[in-house]
Design brief:
This protein is an all-alpha fold. The protein has one domain. 42% of the residues lie in helices and 0% in strands. The chain is built from five helices and no strands.
Length: 115
Amino acid sequence: MTIIDKILSHCGINCAECPAYLATQKNDVEEIKKIAKEWSSDNMKFKPEEIYCDGCCKEGRHFSWVDNCDIKKCCTEKELENCAYCDDYICDILKNSLEKDPNAKRNLEEIRKYL
């Protein structure tokens, strides 16, 4: 799969690999319930209706946490498609996210090769 075939979030996550995105696109209510349970913790509980997501860079439904995402806020403010296009790449905000998801970093690095 090339970078062109991927549906990327602002931080480089490939939405087409995200369980919430996949379940939403299939309209799989049982899978959405399962994800809500798996992603919940003692500190943060998710209801199934908070899981539906069409991708944070697209119009439509968004995983409930997306509105709190500092990366999304930054990209929106700077009018960037994603962090790969930022002059401050890799900033402190993005660094923490990329440490958790090496695939996201690879996706952003692939875009930067062509800038």
